[in-house]
Amino acid sequence: MKIIFAISFILIFISCSSNQMSSYDEVRKQYGKYVFSHRINNLKKSYHSLIRNDDFKKNGITNTNFSLAIPILIDSKEYDLLITLLNKSKVLTEYHKFFYINLTKALKFRCKDSVKSNYYIDENSTLIKKYISLNQADSNLYIDYYINKLYISSLESVLTEIDSLRDKKFSDEFYQYTLKDAIKEYNNQIVRCK
Length: 194
Prior knowledge:
mainly alpha
């Protein structure tokens, strides 16, 4: 569990370009503390540092900050702000832009309107399948697909489906230690509705 958090944090750390790195130091520091501790106070501090950041205020979501800003805004449940910023973004690929918009909308309605939430999950499934058909060797698309599927299927059924794919596209190591571990970890983070 901590390994995925550590990898996520490392990716967040290296995602910031060197000239912008120092402007996101406090954001990164507080979010890193949140990732490892799950203390809401650290999440709040990272969110406030992010929205006060001059680069973020001026440019919104950029190549410099997207892997830091998106998780902070999702974890902070700032769904409307994130959707607005994603719609304005000029730097994200079409795939990532619509993937995150659909995911954010699905999360926004998750416990309020399951029909609407599932609609956005289905939209993401369609989007991911389209991109998989264009690039079957992109393992990240499969991770996105099965993470997306967790919102409408049980962990057990998703893992069974992954097992049925073995030996078809990727190595056993990818299936066992990357895909399945990522799915199990993400499943632990999904907010369950009461």
